Amino acid sequence: MPSTPSCADAAAPRRARDVGLACGRLKPGPRNAITDVPGVRVGHCTLSDGATQTGVTAILPHGGNLYRDKPVAAADVLNGFGKSVGLTQVEELGALETPILLTNTLSVGTVATALIRHAIAANPDIGRTTATVNPVVMECNDGPLNDIQALAVTEAHAAAALAEALASADGAAVAVGSVGAGRGMSCFGFKGGIGTASRRIKLDGKRCHLGVLVLANFGRAGELRLPDGRRVGPPPQDSDPEKGSVIVIAATDAPLDHRQLRRVIRRAGVGLARVGSFWGHGSGDIALGFTTANRIDHDETADSVPFRVLNERRIDALFEAMAEATQEAVLDALVAATPVTGRDGATRPCLSALLTAAF
């Protein structure tokens, strides 16, 4: 079993657009990634050792002290078959105060503890002279490929993912595919994993971005739909349930309040439906979003504070961006995924191989 973190190679073989799977009409940002939103950083720690095929992915809204400088945030649950931590407080208070960590289902508690330690190290007053901290951890079940009962993910692995994110440059490319939390994931009968995409939006003459990162581990085999309408993969069995999960993380630098942000991230469901999902009973389909344009100062003493919000006559632009970026991020995860052989020799075909054969 791995005893030390093995962080992912940043190189991904291909992206969705490399094989003609662009979605929608809006233009992507320069990296077509969640990191097109200034300040956002992503890091991975990948565990790959025989039956252990899992990991941790970290998303940082900005490189500062998140507990002291909290981005406005919101969560939306399409289908709640999941074991995430921290969503209740995000919805109640409308803010993030830690990075977001993604991992496998049975590692949520361990990874949450690592986030708490990370926050306390920077804020020794937590739980003593000020409030406690709300760690945000989201998960998918990678059990078919990963020996999830081994509980291989440690606090050190979570810390390594955080360290990689903190060390990355502003606007850096995001490693996608079978990396980090995506290492053991499956999607529509194919190898799944991490995918990302972004869209440009112009507001008041200035360019903003909305970026999405997905952990794709959902969908019945044979029900994947490509942007041109093709259905690919083995034929589904009517008796097979729709199960798995997808976590959608959205970032923007558009000035939204909590209510507006929740309206935007709910459109993740449009993108998921476009690729063939109907959010089955056994699927955990959850979106979480944040804006870097509105922050909450933990130590604020004023009775009232200024706050910018979007003119809702312009919110359709973000709805469209969210739908397109989610759809493309799922396809990105599928195209970038590389072969993984895990527990009991289990494996999944790669969509990129099928598309290459078709060409």
Automatic annotation (TrEMBL):
InterPro entries: ArgJ-like_dom_sf, Peptidase_S58_DmpA. Belongs to the peptidase S58 family. This is S58 family peptidase. It comes from Azospirillum cavernae. One of its GO terms (molecular function) is aminopeptidase activity. It comes from the Bacteria. Pfam families: Peptidase_S58.
